[in-house]
Amino acid sequence: MSSKTPFIDTAREVIRIEAEALNSLADSLDESFRAGVDLLLASKGRVIVTGIGKSGHIARKIAATLASTGTPAQFVHPAEASHGDLGMVTRNDVVLAISNSGEAPELANMIAYSRRFDIPMVGITKAPGSTLGRECDVVLRLPDLGEACGTGIVPTSSTTMTLAMGDALAVALMRHRAFTPEHFRDFHPGGKLGALLTRVSDLMHSGDAMPIVGIDTSMQDALIEISQKGFGVVGVTHPDGTLAGIITDGDLRRHMSDRFLHLTARDVMTTSPRTIDPDVLAQEAVGIMNGQDGGRSVTCLFVTDADKTKPPLGLIHIHDCLRVGLG
């Protein structure tokens, strides 16, 4: 299909119109945005995000983004609010109400409730002189631009700008609170994102689960430890418990002979094995095990303190990483 077809031309036109709308929105931001952020920060409760129709769909996403970035938030449907869900809104909360026109009748009871109980309210609308705009403590004004549909009846540019405004609020609040990837991981334990933020300490095997033998252990006993723990390796420790080396299947093959069972772990082990810190992201451990650090590929790494002056803390296996979606 040629790039000159009407479908592609239409798509490019829509995207360019919405991109221009976002540029206009960025240029239009003023001190009211700072005031809105300050009002949200001052809340001791949650941000109650509300809107109807397409604005309601955007409101749900904004609430989810706020909640996942350290700002407690909840979407409340304005129609359901009129039938009892206003009880979800407390005096410690702040309302973030969304209406492009500012005249959505479904918001009337939410507005009245917030005014009656002195609940702060921030509005996102293109019409600061509207019912919503007049009642809000802070108005975040959207540029009054045409919709990308060309007819002015399909919410397109307006919803894109509203979503961007919500993202801007969430990121501004997140940065003010010094929200870190560690905090983010707490709210995203599942899926690919949760896997990418998983740390070695979250996946490692520790305590009695670790395959460990002393440096003078006979290879007969070392083989039993390898077999019982099921990782295909065994760590070898000095008398003080620190890691001296590791025995892998490769080490076993290299030393296989008639004298093998008369050898000790000291005779067979590979000294100075690669290790990893418990606070490192598991994704980095995968890279090391796959040889991306320039070393040979391995199936597991022992976890130690940075100075390696203490006994091993655990063992992480490539299968542990694959199980959570890394690899």
Shape: elongated
Distance between the termini: 37 Å
Tally of strands: 12
The CATH architecture of the largest domain:
3-Layer(aba) Sandwich
CATH class category name of the largest domain: Alpha Beta
Uncertain segments: none
Strand content: 5-15%
Sum this structure up briefly.
The protein has 327 residues and is α/β, with parallel strands linked by helices. It has two domains: 6-179, 3-Layer(aba) Sandwich (Rossmann fold); 200-323, CBS-domain, CATH 3.10.580. Helix content is 43%, strand content 14%.
Plain-language structure description:
It is built from 15 helices and 12 strands. The chain folds into 2 domains: 6-179, Glucose-6-phosphate isomerase like protein, domain 1 (Rossmann fold); 200-323, CBS-domain (Roll). It has a 5-stranded parallel sheet, sandwiched between helices. The protein has a 4-stranded mixed sheet with strand order 6-7-8-9. It has a 3-stranded mixed sheet with strand order 10-11-12. By secondary structure, it is α/β, with parallel strands linked by helices.
